[in-house]
């Protein structure tokens, strides 16, 4: 049996990549939500728990074994070096978890890994093709402020500034989806879906 193609799906905060992922999912394509799994693995993955505790201290986890999110957030918030350390621990755990998941879904024509920082960590290189979801920065900012009212405009600006630029995404992606409100996304997804199916049949 031929292995399914591995497809990366990414986009900046507020681009709507999770919405796009759900459209692919409705077509029967398995989706691995890397950001959600990364959060879950901080509790579930024993090796990762040990590494986090060794790096950030015993207070990283509560007495009941749950992640002490407030403690970790205070450690890494506004400290890029500490955040890089945490990402450096979580990223390999996500890679291991994704490989296991991919084996369980090997009958699909292709698999999608949805990840916010696919290009930042070089994870796109492990994919056969990559899709970037694009939207204008001001629109993305409005979407995030509506979705996450606890965030301030300054916090959203800070996140937007730290993420890969749209120009860089354009260079690295094999497919682009325009998710500005003026564009219909389903026809764009269908076109990419058909292109990927044609690749798997060769």
UniProtKB/TrEMBL annotation:
<keyword id="KW-0418">Kinase</keyword>
<dbReference type="InterPro" id="IPR027417">
    <property type="entry name" value="P-loop_NTPase"/>
</dbReference>
<dbReference type="GO" id="GO:0004140">
    <property type="term" value="F:dephospho-CoA kinase activity"/>
</dbReference>
<keyword id="KW-0067">ATP-binding</keyword>
<keyword id="KW-0547">Nucleotide-binding</keyword>
<protein>
    <recommendedName>
        <fullName>Dephospho-CoA kinase</fullName>
        <ecNumber>2.7.1.24</ecNumber>
    </recommendedName>
</protein>
<comment type="similarity">
    <text>Belongs to the CoaE family.</text>
</comment>
<feature type="binding site">
    <location>
        <begin position="14"/>
        <end position="19"/>
    </location>
    <ligand>
        <name>ATP</name>
    </ligand>
</feature>
<dbReference type="InterPro" id="IPR001977">
    <property type="entry name" value="Depp_CoAkinase"/>
</dbReference>
<dbReference type="GO" id="GO:0005524">
    <property type="term" value="F:ATP binding"/>
</dbReference>
<keyword id="KW-0173">Coenzyme A biosynthesis</keyword>
<comment type="function">
    <text>Catalyzes the phosphorylation of the 3'-hydroxyl group of dephosphocoenzyme A to form coenzyme A.</text>
</comment>
<dbReference type="Pfam" id="PF01121">
    <property type="entry name" value="CoaE"/>
</dbReference>
<comment type="pathway">
    <text>Cofactor biosynthesis; coenzyme A biosynthesis; CoA from (R)-pantothenate: step 5/5.</text>
</comment>
<dbReference type="GO" id="GO:0015937">
    <property type="term" value="P:coenzyme A biosynthetic process"/>
</dbReference>
<keyword id="KW-0963">Cytoplasm</keyword>
<dbReference type="GO" id="GO:0005737">
    <property type="term" value="C:cytoplasm"/>
</dbReference>
<keyword id="KW-0808">Transferase</keyword>
């Amino acid at each position: 049996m031929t292995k399914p193609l591995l497809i990366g799906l990414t986009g900046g905060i507020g681009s709507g990549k999770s919405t796009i992922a759900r459209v692919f999912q409705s077509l029967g394509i398995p989706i691995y939500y890397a950001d959600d799994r990364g959060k879950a693995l901080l509790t579930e993955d024993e090796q990762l728990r040990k590494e986090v505790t060794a790096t950030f201290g015993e207070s990283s986890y509560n007495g009941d074994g749950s992640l002490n999110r407030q403690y970790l957030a205070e450690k890494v918030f506004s400290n890029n070096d500490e955040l890089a350390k945490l990402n450096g621990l979580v990223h390999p755990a996500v890679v291991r978890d994704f490989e296991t998941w991919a084996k369980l879904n090997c009958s699909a024509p292709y698999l999608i890994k949805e990840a916010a920082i696919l290009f930042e960590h070089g994870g796109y290189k492990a994919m056969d093709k990559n899709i970037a979801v694009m939207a204008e920065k001001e629109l993305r900012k409005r979407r995030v402020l509506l979705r996450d009212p606890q965030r301030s405009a300054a916090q959203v600006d800070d996140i937007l500034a730290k993420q890969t630029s749209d120009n860089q995404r354009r260079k690295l992606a094999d497919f682009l989806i325009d998710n500005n409100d003026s564009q219909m996304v389903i026809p764009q997804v269908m076109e990419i879906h058909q292109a990927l199916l044609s690749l798997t049949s060769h």
